[in-house]
Amino acid sequence: MLFVNVQNPDALFRKVGECEGAVSYLDGQGARRDFKPVAAQMLTYGAPLRPREIPALEVLAENPNDQARLMRCMMDAHC
Fold this sequence. Notes:
CATH class: Alpha Beta
Helix content: 40-55%
Order of helices and strands: EHEEHEH
Number of domains: 1
CATH topology: Histidine-containing Protein, Chain: A
Strand content: 25-35%
Oligomer: single chain
C-alpha cells in the first residue's frame, strides 16, 4: 500500500503498533524494513524530532486485518 501525504504520522505509528502481524516499509533503496520498531521509536522521540508529515511511504502488511486497519486509518483521515 502506498501512503501519500500522511498528515498525522503519530496516528499511523500507533496503528502500526496495534497490528497483529508483520508490517514493513520500503526504504529509499527499495529494501524491506520492519516498521513496528521504527514506529515505536518514532513515538518515543520528542515532538520536535518527529516528522510532521510523510510525503510518501510504501507499507506492506501481511495480515489482511492489519491491511484493512491501516487502510481505514488513511480513508478516515486519521493518518
